[in-house]
Amino acid sequence: MRPPLAPAAGRRQFCARLAGLAGLAAAGALAGDALAQAPVRVIRISARRFVFTPGTVRLKLGEPVQLELTTEDVPMGFSVPDFKVRQDIVPGTTQTLRLQPDKAGEFVFLCDVFCGSGHETMNGSLVVEA
Amino acid sequence: MTRPTLDRREFLALASLGGGAVFASGLYGCATPAAAGAEDFFFVQLSDSHWGFEGPPNPDARGTLPKAVAAVNALSVPPDFIVFTGDLTHTTDDPRERRERMAQFRDIVSGLKVQERHFLPGEHDASLDHGKAFQEFFGPTHYTFDHKGLHFIVLDNVSDPAARLGDEQLQWLRGHLATLPRDTRLVVLTHRPLFDLAPQWDWATRDGEQAVALLMPFADVTVFYGHIHQEHHHMTGHIAHHAARSLIFPLPAPLSAPRRLPLPWNPEHPYEGLGFRGIQARAATPALALTELPVVRG
């Protein structure tokens, strides 16, 4: 039979158990984070007036990807209306946009921040293969 | 002062200028009595002249706007006023050239016989400098005015290059609408559509839904806009939205082509798809009647 714990020892053990639980929870969170941050394919897209490079991006249905977006000259936007995602792109920075397509087909991506005469045709194609 | 009333038959006869299609709206189903003192009148909407544009889509790019001014001046009954719903000029990176184009545009439209003119910017006028040059030439980018029983609200969804009205303007709109009786007859003028017409072609206003929600409690609201270079009609609930033709080149119907490229100039039918609009406000009914007019006689 275990001797009864002194009140102070009881508090310490209680705290230690809490800490252990917290540690487990933290470990779980870390595991979750690790899962959430599992390596995904990175696709770099560069914008400059008035083109995206590459102009066509191919994805697999359900494949999580991370788009890394840069602009070579002026502020731009990157928008895929069919997936309701968008991101401002500021010169000198790399912006990331995670995307996991849930439908197959060919979808437009476009600049949605007016960047000059030619903005109207600044778009590309996102091809999602089933 | 009461000007001669233009009855419906006379007004529709204006279409005989060139056989422009007539769209008579009966869009409201609402029996709100006309405000006291209201009377029939009509005004003209011009849009998207892109002064400074050059290219094959309009080989008469420098001639079309003067022709439109002449066509408006030739109307048998002059409009009470004229609104110009944006993209007065074609964009340029050069601030001095931008101002030069605005000065030339202003000089040309000064030839309009109608003295009351209201302007609002398009993204080609305002998005590269947040409306600075536009304001120097044409004043504020959002404001209100009244005319014979109608209350006009001009909104700016282009000075922010990301196509937002923005929190400050939405707050202004909210506060302004709070001062108006709910049976006020509202006409909203803007450049981009306030609804998601075709976000894939950037034909939307990112926070336009918030403006529409603020307008929704009013029974009688009509929005006139430009930007898409073609006649288009749409309803969000009871709110009617009407896009105007351009004065430089027409664009394809929304999402009907891979790209929103100008429709090619048709030498067999010059100026095809270009034009302006007359809008009649009738005191006896809240419905507005629209008449689409060509730049030149067909």
From TrEMBL, chain A:
Gene Ontology CC: one annotated term: periplasmic space
Origin superkingdom: Bacteria
Pathway(s): Nitrogen metabolism; nitrate reduction (denitrification); dinitrogen from nitrate: step 4/4
Catalyzed reactions: N2 + 2 Fe(III)-[cytochrome c] + H2O = nitrous oxide + 2 Fe(II)-[cytochrome c] + 2 H(+)
EC number: 1.7.2.4
SUPFAM superfamilies, per database record: Cupredoxins
Signal sequence range: 1-31
Cofactors (names): Ca(2+)
Compartments in which it is found: Periplasm
InterPro entries found in the cross-reference section: CcO_II-like_C, Cupredoxin, EfeO_Cupredoxin, NosZ/Cyto_c_oxidase_sub2, TAT_signal
Gene Ontology MF annotations: copper ion binding; cytochrome-c oxidase activity; nitrous-oxide reductase activity
Enzyme class: oxidoreductase
Alphabetical keyword list: Copper, Metal-binding, Signal
Domain Cytochrome oxidase subunit II copper A binding stretches: 38-130
Function: Nitrous-oxide reductase is part of a bacterial respiratory system which is activated under anaerobic conditions in the presence of nitrate or nitrous oxide.
Family: Belongs to the NosZ family.
Subunit structure, interactors included: Homodimer.
Protein name, entry field: Nitrous-oxide reductase
UniProt organism field: Variovorax terrae
TrEMBL record, chain B:
PROSITE patterns in the record: PROKAR_LIPOPROTEIN (PS51257), TAT (PS51318)
Protein name: Metallophosphoesterase
GO MF entries: hydrolase activity
Record Pfam families: Metallophos (PF00149)
Gene3D superfamilies: 3.60.21.10
Source organism (scientific name): Variovorax terrae
Domain Calcineurin-like phosphoesterase: 43-230
Segment forming the signal sequence: none
